[in-house]
Amino acid sequence: MVVIDSIGKGIVIDHITAGMGMKVIEYLDIDTTKDTVAVIMNAVSNKYGRKDVVKIENAADVDLTALGLIDPKVTVNYIEDHIIREKIHITVPEKVVNIIKCNNPRCVTSIEPGAPQIFHLIDRENREYRCEYCDDIISMKGGYGNEFIHKQWVNR
Ligand SMILES: [Zn+2]
Prior knowledge:
SH3 type barrels, 2 domains, mainly beta, disordered C terminus, 4-stranded antiparallel β-sheet, single chain, 9 strands, Alpha-Beta Plaits, 5-stranded antiparallel β-sheet
């Protein structure tokens, strides 16, 4: 068993696919110059073998939709006074706005700057999404390194 130092207040993202902890930080646009962030790599997990864990001190929220896209088996623990106040199991999101980018150069979202990028889930198992405008399909399964994800969320 691996003992993980607790944080007083913040968020623990648990059961991240081993090796993907840094990617999660990148995609969630967590400011590692300001926030106190701990990444535990290759922790032993009874459930999934190996896992990464990310802890962000004093963070108020993370983008659960983005987490569902990147790694839907993660759990998010909200910590207060060193106690887990709430535990959320992430699900694959049905609708995704302004997180992934359409790959079709002729799509209106590629032509019009500021057009919202809207995708609808069409295949949960393979995490496939259809662009609302041009019907192009993007698969997020194993797509951790793909270029579709914005590093900066539009509304931040
Ligand atoms: Zn499109």
